[in-house]
User: What shape does this take?
Amino acid sequence: MRNKSLLLVLVAAVIFGLIAAISVSRYLSGAQAGNNLVPVVVAKVEIPLGARIVAEQVATVQMPQNAIPEGAFDIIDKLVGRYTTVRILPRETITASRLAPEGSTGGLSAIIPEGYRAMTVRVDDESGMAGFLMPGTLVDVLVVIQPPDGSNLGSISKIVLQNIKVLASGQNMDEPQDRRDPANVRTVTLLVTPQQAEKLSLSSAEGRLRLALRNSIDQNDEKTLGANKRTLLTGESALPVPDITAQKTGEAQPPKPKVRRAPPLMMNVGDRLGLPAATPTPAPPKAIIEVFEGTKKRTVNFP
Assistant: This one.
């Protein structure tokens, strides 16, 4: 009886094994049929931004057809002579979106999108953010300028351009691998529209330029009124220090305080200039609790 049961178990094991082998074989055959390998051109070495591609820099590899990115090339001859618009790392697939249009020249002009212009401005350690303006960063352009004739406000500081991309820092167009290392440069090249180029040219000729670095994911359009001597002496409310860790994790930021505070000295100066005085914020009412201790009653004030 025991031998008969053992024989049944062995037969069942063989049957299930055959079913599993057939299923795996059919799955692999279907996967191989759906993932036909085709040639794709990839980079053999690092290709700098704005460089002309030569045959020695690329190679052809076999990749599954359903894993090929859109715009990839299958023949090396289609790439030779084209210029890159981004830096391409070794073993990366070269796609049409990473190349300048056919017939374009190399260098800086290859990375300028249609409808834009590249314009260079002179900076120093102060206006150039101490060398931290690197290719790929975003900046706001401020100008300190005298208002038109007839105004008695003195110099005015105003943001004239926002969210402007830095194309080149000095003669370097490649984004550095380590953004913590500042570069000592005297010029930066900005990507602007023709209208923005006109404003930038007039600002650099009539006033003093300053560049303010901004976060690459901050695309907000800030509406400001500018600053002059009158608004400068009205003081400014204290803002909480932003939590960089909370920004990375997506946590909610604390609301900005609405209480306006100004030191006594600033308020006196504002009074002498005829500026409206800051309205003091009334103190919140104190909490009062009555405490009974046997037959005695007393009140406790909480601040």
In short: The longest strand covers residues 156-169. Residues 2-34 form the longest helix (33 residues). Residues 117-232 form one domain.
